Amino acid sequence: MKKFALGILLLHVFQVAGLARLPKTVPLMPPRETGGGIGALKTKNNNFKEINSDNLNLGFEIGTLMRNDSTSADILGMQLFFGGRASLEFPILSTSLHLKPSLGYFRKQQSEAAVSVVQHVVEGGLNLLYEMAPWRNIQWAIGAAGRVDYLISTISVYNQSNSGSSFRFRAGPSSEIKFKLANNLKLTTDLEFTFSISRPTRFFGGLTTGLAFDL
Amino acid sequence: MVATVLKRVLLLSSVLAMLISIGCNQANYNGSAVINIVHPARGHCQYTVSPVSFQTLENISNMTGKVGRVLYSSNNLDKDPNTLVTGQGLTPVDTEFFRSGDTYFPANLDSLFAASLYYSIENGYLLTKTLDPTIDLALIVPNFRDTRIVHRAIRSESLANTQKEISDNAEYLSVRSGPQVLNYFFSYPTDTVKNIPLGLNMGIMNHEFSHLVFQHLFYEPGIKRNMNVGSTKPTTHSLAALDEGLADYFGFLATQDPGYFLCTFPQENRDLALPKYFTSGLIAGIDSNSDDYFDSHQGGAVFASIQYEIGQTLGNHQVVGKSLLNLMSNLLTCSSTVSGNTLNFNFGDIAKCHLSLLSSDSRAQGVARQIYQKYLGSYGVGL
Fold first, then answer.
1. Distance (Å, whole) CA B119 – CA B38
2. B151 at the A interface (CB within 8 A)?
3. Is B284 inside any structural domain?
4. Of the N and C termini of chain B, which has fewer Cβ atoms inside 10 Å?
């Protein structure tokens, strides 16, 4: 599972790195013919907007939620929770500014002999993203994410168990990158670094990837 | 139209959820607390998860209090001989607790272990004080609150000329640092245990706590008095076995389960309810000068079973527990165990000392004498 998390991270890094190597300027064709006039350019822009999902997007992603832990870390000082998110994404105020509310679930199980603790994180989130210069079939956006977690821990020993729950709010910077796979389908990867607001402050990372559909 | 309504609903619900979560802060509490932990219930190896009251805890995040602090180190503590003296590299366990009303709930396995370990040590402290109110270890043990309870300790042992990390074990260790004695409890990682991990077995952790009690009621005063250990009787082996036997019995007192050891190691012959004897083979091992044929836990298991039967016969284990605490400190003064400044005894002499301490309760003394005579073998001659 650690390799899976690492794979998603590398995918995101390569996607961003790949984007950085693309030409920065997009040559605009001068209007020479009727077909290449203002009207035609508008039509092209409209097509471009469709690719860049100015419409409502529905996304499903799987991945890991990472929680820093100095005692029992899975990788790089972080504990890994695995799960996924369903999200909607739509532009607000301008075509570059997107809001991405989501609902997610992540889980981690720790066991030692007959004793186990299962942690469930039901996550409600809101991601405000600013779309950087889009290029061809790739979109990259950066922004800020706010997440409200409903946490449930279940301790079990043999056939006895008991659960406790709590809320947590965390916020921090986020990044999203999308590849167009088909007309209404994109491969999307989200990376975020958040901090819990309550004390003691704890550091979290989120790394998910999946598909987004234009609605 | 639908999309616009949907967007507004999502925005509003997100803001509302954030406000709720900010209102519901996580645990950040100083003082005694009620925490959900894994602990023994009534019956043999019946463990449950439910709230228990911590009476001496001062900081739940760092799991520190009157009886010590729970620590962790990712380093092998034997790598640098000074580590245990300086405590360098030992940090509080990274805990997380949810608060619901007055009750705290461990969010993960480390938090559960940290709380359970502290609770076990606190239980040992309070049990000792309940049995004999004159014995307050917080006053007897110097720097008692600096007792270091190490979760998932990494240490090495030598096995067949190779170093191997210790697992499936728990240990009390006193480390001398100048005039001070530092008290360590180690809960080692679980490897092959399939049942209750040692760190969560309250009986086993109280067994270890009893070693601390013996250290500070017997060994430390003996060291201060410059006592010698004689060689005409098997004093060293008897002391080691007695230490284990007392620990086995106090583990039972903490759990009220004579088979508490079996909750972790089902195959071990450590059920106090099963009568055991000082057989000629066992006595030969204790009496020998070599460690090759001696296992302190075997003699200890017999002594613990004897105490259990005395308590059962009397219908009162408190009397036995209190008399054993007195035995710990009176071994240094009993006429049967010490001559001048020299300790010289076997289990028969220990029994004589114990019986003399029960002289104020003729019934208890009579029962104890009978049972000692029944199980002590050749050590029981002359009781």
1. 10
2. yes
3. yes
4. N
